[in-house]
Amino acid sequence: MTSNAQQPNRLSQGGRIDRSRKLSFTFNGTRYQGHPGDTLASALLANGVDIVNRSFKYSRPRGIVAAGAAEPNGIVQLGSTEAGQVPNVRATQQALYEGLTARSTNGWPNVQRDLMGLIGKLGGQFMPPGFYYKTFMAPASMWLTYEKYIRKAAGLGRSPNENDPDIYDHRHQHCDVLVVGAGPAGLSAALAAGRAGARVMLVDEQEEMGGSLLSSRENIDDAPATSWVEKTLEELSELEHVTLLPRTTANGYHDHNFVTLHERCTEHLSDLAPSANGRRQVRARLHRVRAGQVVLASGAHERPLVYGGNDVPGNMVASAISTYVRRYGVAPGKRLVLSTSNDHGYRAALDWLEAGREVAAIADARQNPDGELVEQARSKGIRIIAGSAVIEARGEKRVSAAKVAKIDIAGFKVAGPVEELACDTIASSGGFSPVVHLASHTGSRPTWNDDILGFVPSPVKGMTPAGGAHGVYALDKVLEDGVAAGSAAGEACGFSAASVSQPNVKNLREGAAVALYQVPHLKATLRGPKQFVDMQNDVSSAAIEVATREGFESIEHVKRYTALGFGTDQGKLGNINGMAIAARCLGRTIPEVGTTVFRPNYTPVSFGAIVGRHCGELFDPERYTAMHQWHVENGAEFEDVGQWKRPWYFPRKVNGKTETMHEAVSRECSAVREKVGILDASTLGKIDIQGPDAREFLGRVYTNKWAKLAPGRVRYGLMCKDDGMVFDDGTTSCLAENHFLMTTSTGGAATVMEWLEIWHQTEWPELDVYFNSVTDHWATMTVTGPEARKLMSELTDIDLDKDSFKFMDWREGNVAGVPARVFRISFTGELAYEINVQANYAMHVWKKLFAHGDKYGLTPYGTETMHVLRAEKGFIIAGQDTDGSVTPEDLGMHWAIGYDKPNSWIGKRALTRPDTKRTDRKQMVGLKPKDPSVVLEEGAQIVFDPKHAIPMPMKGHVTSSYYSPTLQSGFALAVVKGGHQMMGDTVYLPMADGQVHEAEIVSPIFLDPKGERQNV
Amino acid sequence: MFYILCPYCGEHREEEEFHPKGQAHIARPADPENTSDDEWGDYLFFRDNPRGVHHELWVHAVGCRKFFNITRHTVSYEILEVYKMGEQPSITAESLASAEKSQGVQVGDGGQQTVGASDSAAKDSRGTKV
Amino acid sequence: MSNAQQFDTRPQGEIPVESPLAYSMQRSGAPKAKAGTKVTMRERPFLGQLTLRGGAIVLDEALREVVGLGLPGEPLGLVQDQAGERSIQWISPDEWLLIVPGGEEFDIERRLREALGDAHFAISNVGGGQTVLELEGEAASEVLKKSVAYDVHPRHFSVGKGVTTVFAKATVILRRPSEERWELVVRRSFADYTYRWLLDAGEEFDIAVEN
Ligand SMILES: [Zn+2]
């Protein structure tokens, strides 16, 4: 590591940096020094670092050209540790901090001499637009191989290989007026709206608020503009309902004035967020703002001119020169040539001169430049060459000279002799482009404004542009525009405008600008030196011309063909120039060619900020039952069912060894079939249904009959959609004549509730019935197995006699001293009691059951055992054995269809459509593998003829498959075309590994087909 | 992310509180058994997909759980009005075209409490959801 | 009578009872107040909670008679008795949430059913299915801003208002019974997630948990 502490380009005074302190930082392995207040870019320029990257396609050396978000070249990889790596950071927006470590994003192995450079120089001639598509896309299979090397060489940045140790945050915000940008327009707007009493948020992407005023030459109220900034910020910070957010980029503008902001909380301090007062600090924060009104005061980006060699380090946009000189105290060169089409560019030359540097000449494209700034330059003796432009920059790793010539803009040709001026810096200004990005996120296409030679935002509901973003550039007018926008926005939110006096700003007489984008050269565009339009993607004027010649006329197509604006900078500097060149080539005007639109985000957002705290243990809700702690303490493995954590199985330790799932499930199954088991069934959805029409309603939403279900009884029901397809099932109990308790599948609870409501609210509002969810109120435990009655009898005062408390009855009483409703329903085929108690008492009841259950071999079981037991009985799980294409008849559940019910219940009509009557529909059957040790794969496809040529006709698939310890065999449920008529037939299941399983079609009820066991 | 005025709650809420339920005013045939297969198929499966004004059924799922209708412009995504179950839209593709009006949100008057609001509103619509 | 079944779910004897957050506080901890604590969280478990459905006029009359408290007059309204122990919150045009001290709810339901007679209504006991979390302190609204998209600014969310809304990736009923206090009515199964979320979001303000 070498060290360079000189800062040769640092001016001896001026700027908003703290010269009393030094910060060391490392760029590409070399240590440098800068000051607090620097950006990485200003510090690099202060240290005379010309080359910050190699270009994407041609590997040309590139330097910093801009001073803010528009920077296409100064894109770095940040971070001194692996976990702290951040790709694609704009050096122009990254505050300098002690120990900052950055590398060039592009340029492998290094920026000074790189491998791609050789290819680039060679390839330069041979890499037309569409090169990558044309060369590497065929054969398509090779693209992945090519891409890896292209990416490495071109260097698109890399993500860290270690976990990000930092924490991130989201804030939901609401305000009356959101002001985007805290330059002169934004500050004025915020002041106007804030004084009116509106809730205002003022956000700005920079380290300091003030925008262009931070490097302005102009005075406000006879003092430097920065004093006005300070005074205004002070007032704003004292207004109760005004929120100021610096270091915060408005990145996305979404429907109905929803704006996302990316606040970088600690990224100006160190690689990783430092802790404060012993607490972790948030590194970055995403604000999700719902604004009544948006004032878009995002300013304007200066357009560079497009001339030969305009990418050689030392070429910069004019306003960036002013910013570096005035705000950072850096003059990034010795001798300047300015090429401009307007008055604004002159500021760069004046600032340069005042910094004690030399201005070789100003090439002004206008024949008779005459504005006030022009006068100032003249009076200071600067040479102005009217009607001319820099047509080519000389130099390789740094500008060495500018070729200046008279040009004929209308004729697009050089109109006079070429003069070569020695210089190391060329500044150019082609005018300003309002930053319309956010407005166009909403889908609104910007409108061309000939007066300002730029696109301005088209109307967006609830949005007012102000200042530069509005195409207003003169400072006095900008301040006025800001106040007007802020007042209007406040008024739109119901706040009458407050008085905001217009500060005193000298009006600068401005000469008319001329429209100039691409500068003509002596040679035709295709043969001349490369003129770069989009530096990040290496798109040249020639590439755009080729695209138009190849027939691309739509600007959207030109963009995709050339990759114009595809980089991480979204073509902030190059897009308008590109459109202008396309327009010239196509012989149209810019508004005729149109513009492309921008999408969120305006600048890249870190994943951490997007995720916020929705990660790790808070990624998604985990829903727990009242017995969850017991499950954890008893070693349950959990399965996610929706958001619920359900015990999957309870492995035991046997002789110091933990059971496998297969062993645990076999043990649990046997316990239920031979003794007694217990399942936490609290997750089933439960809906309390009350009202005189409750019974009628049930009859319409279930396929079976409900007219005669008496209080004390329970019935199983199937629900269809109106297309006749099963979508949920469950039991519903009659609690009283007008009162029912419905259960739904665990995953279907919310869906069923909404289903009942939509039918009630939109189709049958005349039915008097209410639905309330009571899922969480009740905890449910299923005690099932031959010994269940004995165990229950020890704990309940309910009469358990099999003749008085029958299968499909429910009773109320106490269990373990807690009031309970007990339901004799069975999902295992065994004697079963489902105990429901108020959830706060559930743990007590659960533990009491175990205290008494030991002697009966009470065994907790989980969802896997539940599945085996229910599948042995042919009980379906909606959503597993059904998929929205299965009718009750397909399931063989004709017994649950009340075709003769008086109403046209949901699904009935569809069951008589020809398609639902087909005999070759996929029908539910059981499958018994010929080899009992085989457990078929769920989802495996079923064929009738395994010798059939591929593609084989697929006749069905496996929906549920398990090993049954009771049957001592694998078994499955499946849907097979015409399966109900194929009992005893053999079908085949060809697997991906070439094996073909054989299975016999059997009844889906594998055990106790008469249902005797549950009735004991 | 839409910002939707719930006509029952009477204020705007974030889209995440709502579920869209498709095209509004799809009436279930009054007598399904005497509806032809084609008509039944239309009811089940066929929906409009207009460029412009669209009437949609939504539910304030995480909120008051009431269903209501939205007139929305499918290009601008602007919500032109909201109205309760059983009510008719005041803005339609035709009315918008004839008024040549593309600006300005009109909203149903919001959410004043009435007894059994959902029932009375919905009862008006019985059998005649259009 | 409404011909519905009423069922008192509270046991008579001394039966151990566990709040929805019992496990969470044990597992995730309950940080004590520090010097910099700007928000305090506490659970108010085992309250009586009834969901009331029906027409506003008949319910209002019955409630005044039985609870001594009428329905809130506006959507999103929340009314309380003097002591702040009993409250009624608008949930929907035909739905209200009644919260009372634990143990009162069975008797209130019985008397309401009597008072409402043949009117069409429904009452569901939901007390075991949800718990009340309180947030108090100067940073309470900041913690809420990290958690709910609903606008909690005092201009928009005044005392006496309550809404059902999205909380992180779950849902809550959020209410403001007084200037300094917020209440979250949380579903039992989501209580642990909500608790862990609040601890994490409140770290910045040294959140404390009082029991
Ligand atoms: Zn609502």
Describe the overall structure.
The complex is a heterotrimer of chains A (1016), B (130) and C (211). Chain A is an alpha+beta fold. Chain A has six domains: 3-130, 2Fe-2S iron-sulphur cluster binding domain, sarcosine oxidase, alpha subunit, N-terminal domain (Ubiquitin-like (UB roll)), CATH 3.10.20.440; 167-300 and 434-492, FAD/NAD(P)-binding domain, CATH 3.50.50.60; 304-430, FAD/NAD(P)-binding domain, CATH 3.50.50; 525-605, Orthogonal Bundle (Arc Repressor Mutant, subunit A), CATH 1.10.10.1100; 678-869, 2-Layer Sandwich (Gyrase A, domain 2), CATH 3.30.1360.120; 917-1016, Elongation Factor Tu (Ef-tu), domain 3 (Beta Barrel). In chain A, the strands form 14 sheets. In chain A, strands 8, 9, 12, 13, 14, 15 and 28 form a seven-stranded mixed beta sheet that branches. A six-stranded mixed beta sheet of chain A has the order 42-43-44-41-35-45. A six-stranded antiparallel beta sheet of chain A has the order 47-48-49-46-51-50. In chain A, a hairpin with a 4-residue loop joins strand 48 (956-964) and strand 49. In chain A, helix 7 (318-328) packs parallel to helix 8 (346-354). Chain A is elongated, with a radius of gyration of 38 Å. The N and C termini of chain A lie far apart (85 Å). Chain B is α+β, with helices and mostly antiparallel strands and 130 residues long. Chain B has two domains: 3-89, Folate-binding superfamily (Folate-binding fold, 2-Layer Sandwich), CATH 3.30.2270.10; 90-120, no CATH class. In chain B, 18% of the residues lie in helices and 25% in strands. Chain B is built from three helices and six strands, in the order E-E-E-H-E-E-E-H-H. The model of chain B is unreliable at 104-130 (pLDDT under 50). By secondary structure, chain C is of the alpha+beta class. Chain C has one domain: Probable tRNA modification gtpase trme, domain 1 (Gyrase A, domain 2), CATH 3.30.1360. Chain C has helices at 22-28, 56-66, 105-116, 140-145, 191-202, and strands spanning 40-44, 48-54, 78-80, 87-92, 95-100, 121-125, 130-136, 161-167, 170-178, 181-187, 208-210. In chain C, the strands form two sheets. Chain C has a six-stranded mixed beta sheet, covered by helices on one side. Chain C has a five-stranded antiparallel beta sheet with strand order 3-4-5-2-6, with helices on one face. In chain C, helix 2 packs across helix 3 (105-116). The longest helix of chain C has 12 residues, at 105-116. The model of chain C has no long low-confidence stretch (mean pLDDT 96). Chains in contact: A-B, A-C, B-C. Chains A and C meet through strand 8, strand 15, strand 40, strand 43 and helix 22 of A and helix 1, strand 2, strand 6 and helix 5 of C. The structure holds zinc ion. Zinc ion is lined by residues 6, 8-9, 60, 63-64, 66 of chain B. Zinc ion (ZN) binds at residues 6, 8-9, 60, 63-64, 66 of chain B.
